[in-house]
Amino acid sequence: xxxxxxxxxxxxxxxxxxxxxxxxxxxxxxxxxxxxxxxxxxxxxxxxxxxxxxxxxxxxxxxxxxxxxxxxxxxxxxxxxxxxxxxxxxxxxxxxxxxxxxxxxxxxxxxxxxxxxxxxxxxxxxxxxxxxxxxxxxxxxxxxxxxxxxxxxxxxxxxxxxxxxxxxxxxxxxxxxx
Length: 178
Ligand code: ZN
Prior knowledge:
The protein is of the alpha+beta class and 178 residues long. 26% of the residues lie in helices and 28% in strands.
């Protein structure tokens, strides 16, 4: 397995729209393992392939306390959503920033597993937030897009400044970054 480089906002490659995976094979399974290792190491609770500059619709997640319940989603799509909830979000591609975002409180989604078999999942709370956040990544959307222009510009300037000042010792990402 390998640790992959995570792109940081405002890198334009984070705006790429990911393509569906057409065929499940060992290359995809290997990539998902690398993404999980990268996510655990960061540390974070979710990672989309777009964030490691791979334009495929792949997501990994683990919201368990013991970090022993990895979730691999291939070609995930939201079928239904309900309610509304606001919670603080962070992102491995926007390190050190946490802002409130309003999303659906619950969702029903469909994805393929690592054998290429479709499955459905209903989620609420943190898992629902995480799934919506990660599918946004696959469509080139970031959580900062839900903030005001002014706030987003401030975040962009802050991250650009930090990247210039100390690329080597970026601030450690907090545990809930997705
Ligand atoms: Zn993210």
